[in-house]
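User: Here's a chain of 1051 residues. Predict its fold as tokens.
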Amino acid sequence: MMKQAPSESSASSRRQTIRRFDIKTTSRGLFGRENEVLTLRSCYERMMSAHNDQSDGVTLDYYAKLAADSFVTSTVPKELVYIIGTSGVGKSSLAFSIKGDVEASENGLFVEGKFDLLQSNEPYTGIAKAFGMICLELLSSSKESVISVGKMLATELQDEVQTLLPLIPELKAIVDEHTSKAASRSKVSIQMGNITEHCQERWKHAFRLLSRALNAAFSPIVLMLDDLQWADESSLEVIDYLVSDLQNPNRLMILGCYRSEEVFDRRILLDSISKLKEKQTKYAFKVTEMKLNPCELDHVNKLIMALMTIEDEKQTQDLAKIVYKRTLGNPFFVLQFMSLLESEALLRYDESGTKWSWDVNEIKQRTNFISDVVELLQGRMKKLTKDIQLLLQYAACLGTSFKLSTIDIIWKEHGTNRSDLSTLIEVMQYEQLIEDHGEQGHKWIHDKVQEAAISLSDKVNESFKFQIGRTLVSALDEDQLEEELFDVVDLLNQGNVATRPELAALNLRAAEKARSISAFRSAVQYTEHGISMLPRDCWTSHREMTLNLFTLGAEMELALGNSTTAERYCDAVFQRNDCSVMEKFPARLALIKKLSGGDADMKRKGMYMCLEALEELGHPLVWRKGTVPLQAVTSLVRTVKATKKWLAKKDKDSLPAEMTDPRHLAIMQLLVRIGYIAYHIEQIFFLVIANCQLVKMTISHGECDCSALGLNSIGGLASIILKHDFSFAVTCAETALMMQENSDSQYEGQTMWTCYLFCLCWTKNLSDSVIALQRGYKVSMRHGDIETAMWILACYQVCIPYIMGQPLGKLVQQCPQLVVHIEEYQKEQAVFVKMFHQGFVNLQSESIEGTEVKGSVFNSEKDQVNTPLLLGIKHFLEGDMIFYSSMEMAAERAVRDGNKFQKILPGVFMGTHEMFHRGVALYAMARKRKSRRYKSRAITIRKSVKQWIKDGIPYIAHYDLLLDAEHAALSRKKYNEADQLYEKAIESAVQIGHVQHSALCSERYADFLLHCGSSNSTNKGAMHQLSESIRYYEEWGAMGKASELRLLIKS
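Assistant: Prediction complete.
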């Protein structure tokens, strides 16, 4: 049956043509690709056959576990396949060859995203299209899946989910009913200068959570991203985020296609591929590269045979030689060339429907002019009507796809009245130039078709694109313009318009949107365009817009590390005498934050800039050189007193006054920054002064988003500097946490971290701290505060479990995964975890003679340990290794170093553990050597432990009991009392689950019994306690210590 063309006059010259070719069929490009198809399928099957520890086919229920545990790693490798070749060589066809396999698997999904040369500056285009398709598939699936994904995203991302909606509007229908309708009480803050900080980390986390949720609904997901050579830097980073996500337990495969002839003009793609190759082993994904070459003559012949349904290869051999010579074996060119031959009646199908006929010489003669596929396509297009040619050019300016509603707006303004738009679209589809993709709009069948259309005539110039952009600005409503903002502004910017303030305003709007989605490079380009469009008198005629453009430009340039340009923009603002201090503040804050993220010298410069800015704001921090410590302590005492009065009056049931004065808010931002810098450059007294000022500002002027952090810091500092004022510290911490309950403060993670590290750890069970810190980790990740998130993660996954006596084997097993996760962000916390890991390994070994943190995992002599925290942890771990190796050496170290750990890391909860071990070692040697230098120091520690008990630390009762037992054991008159105390200490340690201290208490009890005498009952009791100690040490995993006690039993 003849295929009927639309009733458009352009078809009249070809009425007799019987169209037999479907050049859109993706399998047409696979002739001669058997090896490549096999390689691609083997990558897919490798992913599908990989074992998953979480269970095969993880569902959304898994994320309930993830929400509770916060850090779960996957054993299923992701697959990243790059398909490389010239345009039209069949990259997309090869990628689509596994679509059937994917969709045949239960819950499998194959989606496509495509990048565009015209939109190469627009962030996330291909990624957004692909995720949009996944969302549409989800919405068409079961209601339960939609609800589960929506609930998970709303819970994990909270307000951050709103930032994804402009990029992926299809997501709105999934999360809408789970987004809180009640407006949360968000503390006020200075916006400019805040959004950039942690922005990329926030987006990384958001994309990963979105991917995990969607990947739980569909598994496997195969994401085909075409024309990666035109991808923006932000999109390439998202690919990295997705394949390196160790917490996504489902199967994900990304197929990236790019043109080999154009990639060298965009080094960012090659750099991205190189980076991913380096990290693939560590992050459990596989990178495969496949280079496609043009088809050989034999493969071209088979393609022609398939198109014409001919089985005899000799029949088409001469035709194949001509086609191969004209197209050089490029599959897309071959298909277009064959289509041309058919449309020009150079290939004819006889009326009987039995065979094709052609004249080889005629084809040679009439196709001698064809040099490339674009020229061939343009030849086809020029035979269509003028209206279709015009519409093709308009559509090509809109990118790789376009919506009918958008092209309708343009056609009504710039088209003709001769033809109906829907008829023209039908003809374009009939001519196999575009395809209808439903809600995704219409797409070009190949980017070469779009390229041919846009260069069809000289009319498509800068002015042409500008007119399209201006039409869309006038016709689109606000919501539509926001959705199409990048496309519209890109069209306008190609108009070569020198001075247009209204276009500068649109570029500012686009830059702000790009910044909000972490596309800093795009934001820089929009600010550059906006500034170039400002009139000469811009500071007078368009003052606010000019100020915002220069400030935003400085912020974005700083984010990309372009200090010279950023300083030029800042100077343009700072030199304006007509700009107030507050108008200059956002640019100054951006500079300060950039400096505070650098080395020690840069941090000091940032500190000085903060102090200068405070003085300009009328809030100078005055101090005299040499009196800073005294000033800090005096200020702390006064602040504590004022805070106690304020807390006593504070009404917990009513909303407190909010800080709304912009100047006060700016001062708070600077004080937080001073505190941050002071901590990192070890200026503890400036840290005290800054936090005292934070609290005083809150008391005087109301709360803002950093008030809770300041209040809790004062509580912690008071407990350290003013000694054991734990009740005040706890009140501050609990009030700070309550202040954050109804807000979404960027400092929430830091507040929770300091609350539990310095305050609540003294009054809460460690297990309670773990639960709270798990939430703190998620909150910090959501806000992009990676530094805080990684400290929290290292603390509750390694440090607290060690103190609680969790099995060393389990800790050793999870440390490598933690290090990989943390090293992704290149943070100091990876060294922290490695040190603990090495300590665990040393304690596990059969011999624990070593007293240094040194081994295959970490070597303190080679690896950098140069910060107070790392030096403190090194001292802590070495102390424990010495303690479990030799009580005598531990006691000598205790005499020599005293409270060294507390001096390095004052107020940290690990200090109780470290001091307890020192006390036990000192008592052991006091009994053995009868020396007062051990006894006096041990008694001092015992008094400190009793004070801690009095202050309410709930998990150290066995510390107190064992030290009491050791103290009683010094006097023969108190042996009976000591005997009872040892038993109580063991019982207390067992009850709380600190297995290492259960072993220690049994070991010390045995030593006491052996010291008491040599009666049979005493010896039996000692052997029993030694056996119990060995059992506990083995349960903990300290095999070397257990072996040492076995030798003692034998002797």
